[in-house]
Write a structure and sequence with these properties.
- There is one protein chain.
- The protein is built from ten helices and eleven strands.
- By secondary structure, it is an alpha/beta fold.
- Strand 7, helix 6 and strand 8 form a beta-alpha-beta unit.
- It has a single domain, classed as TIM Barrel (Alpha-Beta Barrel).
- It is globular.
- It binds SN-glycerol-3-phosphate (G3P) and calcium ion.
- Calcium ion binds next to strand 2.
- The site of SN-glycerol-3-phosphate has 9 residues, from strand 2.
């Protein structure tokens, strides 16, 4: 997707102008009069809809079930966090500790994969909150090393399994992989990630298949990734934009801005500032319908959400 930079000396930019253009284009002054708000009225592609940790409002985050559901719901992309286990496996887990998302305790980085594989990453979750699309029958639970049955849909998810699922979807999918820092393993996370992407042939972008983008809150991680996989897009995630970067500047090695939705709501003009410099803007975690409308009006390039079906229904095809 190309950035939606204004023509030199052409269209005005900024939140107020974007909002005005949307209202004019809709031919109505109230959002109640429109059923779909997808940016097409403004002559630009609709934002990508990326499932944050899978379809994670409906199913436990970072489980294969949550990702399969996101694919079934029609998400354009999948987001995941990666961490290294003690024996060097990349696993999709957000927190540094196991306590919130599993029945285990302690640090992810202190466990070997076989230990994580005995844990249940699903029962903490309240279960589907939204109607489910037709899903394949679950596979029979397989015994873990302890002999206790573990539902395969809520076992620890390795990046390898997620890549297999994404490739196996058989349709174009954006895969946004976030390397989590700080970690005791430092640069090894990016090294192992790029090695795995190379093995899958995913270190070069391909819009007809799985297209990987790497993200991090760590500028150092972005600087490391750039020479390792120069063809991949890189997103710097941020919950706060430094005053010297409010003109849309991004650090070297980064080509996509990744602000939190709160940042954008507080400073909507930032989207145009990034676009003017030729950067795309991927916003997280956009879960409320009114936030979706604002992101479309501002012309962001990707909406990262726990509720991909809701966002797709809101913005249309
Ligand atoms: O997609 C970016 C977003 O995931 C960053 O925040 O804490 O959910 O990893 P977090
Ligand atoms: Ca993340």
């Amino acid at each position: 997707m190309t950035p939606t930079s204004p023509e030199p000396g052409g269209e005005p930019t900024g939140a107020a102008d974007a909002k005005r253009r949307t209202v004019e284009a809709n031919g109505a002054g109230t959002s109640a009069s429109r059923t779909v708000n997808n940016g097409a009225q403004l002559g630009r592609p609709r934002p990508l809809v990326v499932a944050h940790r899978g379809s994670s409002a409906a199913l436990p985050e970072h489980t294969i079930g949550a990702y399969m559901r996101a694919i079934a719901e029609g998400a354009d992309g999948l987001e995941c966090d990666v961490r290294l286990t003690r024996d060097g496996h990349l696993v999709c887990i957000h927190d540094g500790r196991l306590n919130r998302v599993s029945n285990g305790t302690g640090r992810v980085s202190r466990h070997v994969l076989a230990e994580l594989d005995e844990l249940d990453f699903g029962s903490w979750h309240p279960g589907p909150a939204e109607p489910e699309p037709a899903e394949p029958e679950p596979a029979e639970p397989e015994p873990a090393a302890t002999g206790a049955p573990v539902d395969p849909r809520t076992r620890v998810l390795t990046l390898e399994k997620l890549l297999d699922a994404a490739v196996g979807a058989g349709r174009p999918l954006q895969l946004l992989i976030e390397t989590k820092h700080p970690t005791r393993y430092g640069a090894e996370v990016e090294d192992r990630l790029v090695a795995m992407l190379r093995w899958y042939g995913l270190n070069k972008p391909d819009d007809t298949a799985v297209r990987v983008t790497v993200m991090s809150f760590s500028e150092l991680a972005m600087r490391r990734i750039h020479p390792l996989a120069p063809a991949l897009d890189r997103v710097l995630l941020t919950e706060f934009v430094r005053p010297d970067r409010r003109d849309g500047r991004l650090p070297i090695g980064v080509n996509i801005a990744g602000p939190g939705v709160r940042v954008v709501k507080a400073n909507p003009g930032l989207v145009a500032a990034w676009h003017r410099r030729g950067y795309r803007v991927f916003v997280w975690t956009v879960n409320e319908p009114r936030e979706v409308d604002l992101m479309v009006e501002l012309g962001v390039d990707a909406i990262i959400t726990d509720r991909p079906r809701m966002v797709l229904d809101r913005i249309g095809p």
